[in-house]
Amino acid sequence: MAEGDPNCIFCKIIAGEIPARELFRDDDILAIEDVNPQAPSHVLVMPQAHVANMSTFSDTASAEKVARLLSKAAEIGRQRGAKGFRLVINEGSDGGQTVEHLHVHVLAGRHMRWPPG
Ligand code: AMP
Ligand code: ZN
Q1: Which of 24, 27, 58, 95 sees the fewest Cβ atoms within 10 Å?
Q2: Residue 113 lies in a domain
């Protein structure tokens, strides 16, 4: 695993070592169905290079890579949510992050409440 973290479940999915329902893959980005969906459509969009969170990604990756990740998440949101969608990036324990490989949640297909829990 060239850039992968051997202890990271998303790096294992990116490397094809753990199965996932892939929706999109290019040189930099992978999008998969969340295994425990919180909405009728729940997609995770992530950089393929291991990076723990948005703070590190935005500090270390090019502005173009950061923009492309968010742009792809919004594109999938538009495809999945005829009436809109929600993008969520959890970071740290208070943020509710459980997998320490950056991913954008794309939630669609139901009305989202505010504030989030
Ligand atoms: P977070 O709590 O923001 O770190 O989100 C982690 C997400 O990854 C959760 O929504 C999990 O349901 C999801 N997840 C964990 N393991 C897998 C897996 N093997 N395949 C797909 N999604 C997963
Ligand atoms: Zn990783």
Answers
A1: 27
A2: no
pLDDT, tens only, 56-112: 999 999 999 999 999 999 999 999 999 999 999 999 999 999 999 999 999 999 999
> What is the set of active-site residues?
103
Buried b / exposed e over 27-58, threshold 16 CB at 10 Å, is eebbbbebeeeebebbbbbbbbbbbbbbeebe
Question: Which atom of ligand 1 approaches the CA of 32 most closely?
Answer: 21
Q: Structural domain of residue 96, as residue ranges?
A: 9-108
Is the residue at 115 inside a domain?
no
* Residue 90 beta carbon below 6 angstroms from any ligand 1 atom: yes
| Pocket probe mutation, ligand 1, options 33, 35, 97, max atoms within 8 Å of Cβ | 35
Count the Cβ atoms, other than its own, within 10 Å of residue 95: 12
Q: Name the residue with the closest Cα to ligand 1, atom 20.
A: 35
User: 102 lies in a domain?
Assistant: yes
